[in-house]
Structure formats: structure tokens, C-alpha cells
Specification:
By secondary structure, the protein is mainly alpha-helical. About 80% of the residues lie in helices and about 0% in strands. The protein is elongated, with a radius of gyration of 15 Å. The mean pLDDT is about 90.
Length: about 110
């Protein structure tokens, strides 16, 4: 992901895009809620319950998932309509869903 690209910007672009459907908007909302819950949990526990290795593993997985949905969005944005409708939007949904699920899993600990 380019350094100047902001993940909140990516989510905002998805929200306002006419290229996505309601399911994608729902997934963005799920990510926003789950990310907030995850961040709250991580802040609340501090370093009491997580080792440095566990925290690093979570951070690496979060980054991987965020890069995946950012990449899927960029592919949808630049891909031809037929590809986007047949492949791209399904990939975007899967990437958004996976991120929301993981963030939510961490937040519910």
C-alpha cells in the first residue's frame, strides 16, 4: 500500500463509490465498529495480558488484512466493469469480511 494512502480514506472511498453495493457498505460499517472494539480492548488491557510477541502478531495480522482490502479496492477501482462485477467485488467483500471478523474476534476477547 502506498505510504500516502490512509486506510480510513480507503473505507470512505468505498462508502461513496457507485461501484459497490449495499453489502460492501455493510462490511465497511462492520470494520469500523470491530476496529473500534479491538482498539478499545487493546488499550484497556495494555501490556497486562499480552506478551510483546502476541501484540506483534496481532499488529502484523491487522496490517495484512488492511492491505488486502485496500488492494482489493484498488483493483475494483481500476478494473473493467465486467471483471469488477464477476470477480472484483466478490474479492472486495471477502477481504472486508475477513478483516471485520478478525478485528471483531480480537475486540471480543
Amino acid at each position: 500500500m502506498p505510504e500516502d494512502e490512509n486506510l480510513n480514506q480507503i473505507l470512505a472511498e468505498i462508502i461513496v463509490s457507485k461501484k459497490v453495493g449495499g453489502l460492501h457498505l455493510r462490511r465497511v460499517g462492520e470494520i469500523l465498529v470491530a476496529r473500534e472494539e479491538m482498539n478499545h480492548w487493546l488499550y484497556a488491557i495494555g501490556n497486562r495480558e499480552l506478551s510483546s510477541d502476541e501484540y506483534i502478531a496481532i499488529a502484523e495480522r491487522v496490517l495484512e488484512l488492511e492491505e488486502a482490502y485496500a488492494r482489493a479496492w484498488r483493483e475494483c477501482e481500476s478494473g473493467e466493469q465486467q471483471w469488477r462485477l464477476s470477480v472484483g467485488l466478490a474479492r472486495l467483500d471477502a477481504a472486508l469480511w475477513e478483516a471485520a471478523e478478525y478485528f471483531g474476534e480480537i475486540g471480543r476477547r
